[in-house]
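From the thread on structure requests for the teaching lab: each student submitted one protein with a one-line request. Submission from student K.M.:

"Model non-reducing end alpha-L-arabinofuranosidase from Alkalicoccobacillus plakortidis, tokens only."
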Amino acid sequence: MSQKVVINTDIQKGTINKNIYGHFAEHLGRCIYEGFWVGEDSSMDHTNGIRNDVVAALKNLNIPVLRWPGGCFADEYHWKDGVGPRESRKRMVNTHWGGVVENNHFGTHEFMMLCEMLETEPYICGNVGSGTVQEMSEWVEYMTFDGESPMANWRKENGREKSWELKYFGVGNENWGCGGNMRPEFYADLYRQYQTYVRNYGENKLYKIAGGANVDDYRWTETLMREAGWLMDGLSLHYYTIPGDFFKGKGSALDPSEKEWYITMQKALHMDELITKHSTIMDKYDPEKRVGLIIDEWGTWFDVEPGTNPGFLYQQNTIRDSLVAGLHFHIFHKHSERVQMANIAQTVNVLQAMILTEGEKMILTPTYHVFEMFKVHQDAVKLDIDVSSSLYELNGEQLPSVSVSASMKDGQIHVSFCHVDHQNSTSIQIDLRGIEKNLGEITGRILTADQTNAHNTFEHPDQVKPVAYNDFTVSDHQIELRLPPMSVGVLTIG
Ligand code: AHR
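Reply posted by the TA:
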């Protein structure tokens, strides 16, 4: 069955903010420790304690922004415990994630160094749930004040003379849950108070992000926008793709039934409805769309890999995850006027990761490959698109079987596609309307598999990786793509 896509190359729909390709790294399981930080005494290849292999792989994604230190961890993190000589840093219990000892060896200086190595913007989340206004205010002073002050002097004593540039600052995380179990009215008042003392020092201008809603908690968004909208630059939203039930069993990462595959796609697509409804509420208070919707946690969440610490949230990553990633990016592109940033959870070894490590070994996941193929959309001009998709049906339910998005940068058009049907091939007729000249050279890459649980392992790291794609025919300004089941890819035109 063929499907029609019209790309109006002469109708531009603004810019796709590169920050929607952002990341999140929490003190959770083996994300920070082992994933990034191995310490200065490690025998592994590292720079000042940070793994060089992981940094090199992530640099290839052009990571625009990295959120840290949590997540739930952020609202029990006391930053002062994580600066100064490492051997004398206070140890704490990471109560949320496995009850393990956190030695605070990776703190503010190490995180800022990591961001410099990745050439990415830091996004720091402050502690509202169990921290004070003074503590948050002093953290910002420590990082961004360049003059003479108690915190700036302390930073200098700790080895960093110049202040850091910091733009993105979150005032708490999930304050409806692990960040304090607050009502939106209460958090809105706290947000107003805390953010007052989150100061702009010198040239450093912060973009303040208020803790936002869980999934479809529209009352939270309404209350925050009404009570504090004018005091924020961004408002967050968290939504995870969980095929099962969060408490009773989320579903297996590696062994999805046909139904679970289908439900995963359905739930990934639900992000569109959530953004639409939260944005509509934001439009009421902010019709100019000044305040960004910041989707700073998203991705798949399955049952942990059998035999691993349940508090470490380690899961394998398959072709299914790659489709979830591709669908999310298309939804974020669609809403790019409101969605100013998104951060997948999480970068290494946790949930829908880019990278998995085992000792010195490292593998790239199918999700990594989507971020790599789709990076061409970062800061590109979005093109108007009309997709008439055929339906992917299971047990009497229906979903669009393809999703397509297009952008233009440096004289080239990039068309990304996701085909979610796990069984049947399809074809898409793409009409590139509004171009006078010939289309020029067309190249493509595709990620696909013949099993719904195809994934990479430390023994077989390249089972799922992009390959050249040329199963298309071009005639004038039309391209017909033939797509295998379970496929995601990008065409480059011109
Ligand atoms: O990403 C894992 C956890 O999920 C985060 O710490 C929390 O914010 C969310 O509930």
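TA comment: The longest helix spans residues 258-285. The radius of gyration is 22 Å.
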